[in-house]
Amino acid sequence: MPIADLNLLRRAEMFGSLPTEALADIAAAGLPRRLVAGERIFAQGDPGVTCHTLMEGRVKIVQTLPDGTQAVLRFIGPGEMYGTVAALMDQPFPADAIAVTESVELRWGVSNFRELMRRHPEIGVRSTASAGTRLFDLQNRISELSTERVEQRIARAVLRLAEQAGRPTPQGTEIDFPITRQELAEMTGSTLHTVSRTLAAWDQAGVTASARRRVIVRDRAALQAMADH
Amino acid sequence: MPIADLNLLRRAEMFGSLPTEALADIAAAGLPRRLVAGERIFAQGDPGVTCHTLMEGRVKIVQTLPDGTQAVLRFIGPGEMYGTVAALMDQPFPADAIAVTESVELRWGVSNFRELMRRHPEIGVRSTASAGTRLFDLQNRISELSTERVEQRIARAVLRLAEQAGRPTPQGTEIDFPITRQELAEMTGSTLHTVSRTLAAWDQAGVTASARRRVIVRDRAALQAMADH
DNA sequence: CGACTAATTGATTTGCTTCAAATATCGTGG
DNA sequence: CCACGATATTTGAAGCAAATCAATTAGTCG
Fold this sequence. Notes:
Oligomer: homodimer
CATH architecture of the largest domain in chain A: Sandwich
InterPro entries (chains A, B): cNMP-bd_dom, cNMP-bd_dom_sf, Env_Response_Regulators, HTH_CRP, RmlC-like_jellyroll, WH-like_DNA-bd_sf, WH_DNA-bd_sf
Helix content of chain A: 40-55%
Domain HTH crp-type (chains A, B): 148-221
Number of strands of chain A: 12
Radius of gyration of chain A: 18 Å
Protein name (chains A, B): Crp/Fnr family transcriptional regulator
Strand content of chain A: 15-25%
Number of helices of chain A: 9
Organism (chains A, B): Peiella sedimenti
Domain Cyclic nucleotide-binding (chains A, B): 14-134
CATH superfamily of the largest domain in chain A: Jelly Rolls
């Protein structure tokens, strides 16, 4: 297992400050897997029998409602885990996981993962904390969805993405993976039309610079002001 | 500690099938506390230093946004825990907890609770599962808030409440604690006006029977149909 | 160069909020 | 026991944010 993998595992909040030997143990038990852009890693409703950590690339978690409409629940970056809570609970996956770009993941069968938890009990403590962090995030998103207008929610979504997946460029902070107006709409409970109009207005005002599947934040403070007010 | 307490603890998913001696240990470490209706148990932003289980009554968890608008995140019934995730993460409470009716809770200081977890490791396993269940619930609510119309969301909220706090009456299933139009609005991201109009229409159609701070579900199937379509 | 996917942009509609006021219900103290 | 203040609910009217409808245009890729 190459050193790069261990450093990425170290970044995962689930494995955080475990000793290097433990990380090696964990990495060795996992199966690395290459993913092409658009590939579905697991499907909503599938039995949750695998735990995943992203090594490279970007993955989105999308929930589909009975009527076919979709909501993007989160974007995953390197070092983050997904599928794990469902697997540990012996529940079906509550959403699809789809590679947004070409990616590399490490996956474990849930029984192997439980064995790792037994050998490294710290993982158990972290898993509650990790679920807790996401719980709080989701609670905030619910409050936001309940009370804020669409433009604010789009501003927040773009800020969050720039935060977690920002790459500095001469023009500003660029979201470092391709994202469509449709996906931003599915993150914010809006429509691609409204997102398009909103980004167009922001581009006009010099707050953002957007193009096909690309968004650059030029004026973070202005966006933050949109999100707050 | 009276037997009634132990049976209630048994109902808590966190303590589920622990042996009776363990439950007695847990109950003995906790401080019982009587709450009057409307009393605030902890406040959003307070350091999370206590874990709580409800013994009797009903508690609501309410998040307030910077602009003062509120969102009701959940209603707690006997046997359910609250505040625990924040406490275990050494995080401030992300929301207020307020007794809706006269209630009785059992509370632990977080260090005592951690000690209980050490003595009864099963609690740790359960805590992840418990956080996971709520995680999934919240994800569903986000999808719903993102894509459904207000009437559907109100229908879902009423169904959920009838499910978790339903008391059978001659007329149908009554939500067994007082709930205002305002609170239903804060659960669904709507306004008390819209909730009032919606309930009035349902009452008219014989689907519900509502009064001041009371809601009775007379035709569950019809409500379910509203939620689905 | 097509075929496809993504984005834009105008016109129209609508579900829901907001504004405004009246009415109903409850608890409480005189 | 009734009056009165506080809380909760109803209902109408107006306004608006954002969805929907409807084309058109712009990139991208094989």
